[in-house]
Amino acid sequence: MSDIATSRSARRPWGLKWRSSVWFVTFGIATDLLVYSVIIPVVPFQLEKLRYNNVSGLTGWLLFAYSAGIVISTPLLAHLSEIYRSRWWPMMFGLVSLIGSSVMFMEAPNYLVMVIARIMQGISSSAVWIVGLALLCDTAPEQKIGQQLGLAMAGLSLGLVIAPPIGGALYDHFGFRAPFIFGIICAAADGIGRILVVERKDALKWGYDPAAAFISTGIQDGVQETSIPPPHSTLRNPDVGGEEKSSSTPTDTSCATPKLVTREVEANTSPAPIVEQPKVTLNPLGVLFALSKSSRALASILNTFIYGVVFTGLEPTLPLRMQAVWNFNPGQVGLAYVAAGIPPIFSSPLVGLYVDRHGAAWISLICLLFSLPWWLILIVRWHVGLFIASFAVAVFFMSGVVSPLTAELAAVARTIPGLGYAHIYGAFNFAYGIGCGVGPLMGGQASYSQIYDHVHQGWVAVCCITAGFVFVASVVSFCYTDEHPLLKRILNFKARRDSDEPTA
Questions:
Q1: How would you write 50-108 as a 3-class SS string?
Q2: What is the CATH number of the domain that holds 162?
Q3: Residues 95-130: pLDDT tens digits?
Q4: Tally of domains within the chain
Q5: Which residues pair with 276 in a beta bridge?
Q6: What burial class does residue 103 get, using C-beta atoms within 10 Å of its C-beta: 0-12 exposed, 13-18 middle, 19+ buried?
Q7: How do residues 150-176 score in pLDDT, each as one tens digit?
Q8: Tell me: the pLDDT tens digits for 479-489?
Q9: Which of 145, 183, 252, 436 is most exposed, with the fewest beta carbons within 10 Å of its own?
Q10: InterPro entries from the xrefs (predicted)?
Q11: Would residue 495 count as lying in a domain?
Q12: Domain range spanning residue 90?
């Protein structure tokens, strides 16, 4: 008996339960955004210190370089992640690239090196977002994906909130290198977590399903639990000693109907492994063709692009606006970001929970419409409190849009054979990357920052352009979001009402 136990402990991964758990997989998005955002309030001032002219334009080019890294690396990373079915190596690649880009930016002797470092950081972001979100959807049960994506998106908001004030304070007290050293430390800590992650496909080999455990919390080991497989996967239990397993073990879980899986954890003999059969994977052109046929997917991708335009379009100009109107220094700019960024930490999880229960159609439209007027109120030059409050409310509702977008894309991935989560979040990342480039550098030299610098009432123009993009996103959401979009529901209701009316 002791020999069997020793053999099991030698083969069974240490800490399998918590290392493969949905909660452990969910958190980790914040680090990438923290390292990205830590320089937002300090780069314009550093460029001024280095005696560069046209600071807002140069800052916009740095943001464009970041988006270029995302766009260049996304298709390859998404494709390789689905072909080799491993999330671990791309995530570690992203971590190394993140640390390397931080060191390069910190020691950059000139602007060109800063641009190269920002491109590397965009490549890192591709790995974190594509592989991280795909790993989350691999692990989380289908009926809880919106909730978990909402929590992951809260990490996005958290990174955006805590990084700017930390970066501004560290820059004020310790100089330009201090924010990057802080980011490197956080990335190293995140790397430890990434090393420890056990993917669901590996946990299944030991008879443990983290998705089943997540939705069956409190049920003792050895009882039957509901398991939701990854999209279009087929799980089987191989014969043991030439005999079939009991009917409670699934032989095909490719459909969306929940199956029952028996978790064997405490048995004295090793459980029969649950093995994933090979699945058909689309090539990049096949992915593009498949997505082009889905109006639901195209709408989500377009609104992801708009989300990237809105947020990155303001990043080069917002610190300069606060400096010009209220004479803010980097530390004060960072504190303003905190005041404006705390509410969005709560919007993403709440919206994600709503999406799981009621779908994405109504909540997407509500978030977009409620954010729209506040982008225009930012024009008012009355009091800094009104400015920060308006920005906070606008960001609160706009950040709530991300959970429905990512949940919609996950739903699309489950309906198209050969389309994996890495593919669909590669499209998400690609659209966001293009938006990040168009925002700060829209139309070559007609960027937000160029508008701010060279157009009369430039800040008014920036805010109106932002509101225009949000309005377009609202129309797209109304027409195409969810399996049954609001426009389709209204038309069907009108058709039923007309058919029920008595004829003259």
A1: CCCCCHHHHHHHHHHHHHHHHHHHHHHHHHHHHHHCCCHHHHHHHHHHHHHHHHHHHCC
A2: 1.20.1250.20
A3: 888 889 889 888 887 888 889 999 998 888 888 778
A4: 1
A5: 235
A6: middle
A7: 888 777 777 766 777 788 788 888 888
A8: 999 988 999 99
A9: 252
A10: MFS, MFS_dom, MFS_trans_sf, MFS_Vesicular_Transporter, Tet-R_TetA/multi-R_MdtG-like
A11: no
A12: 10-200+282-490
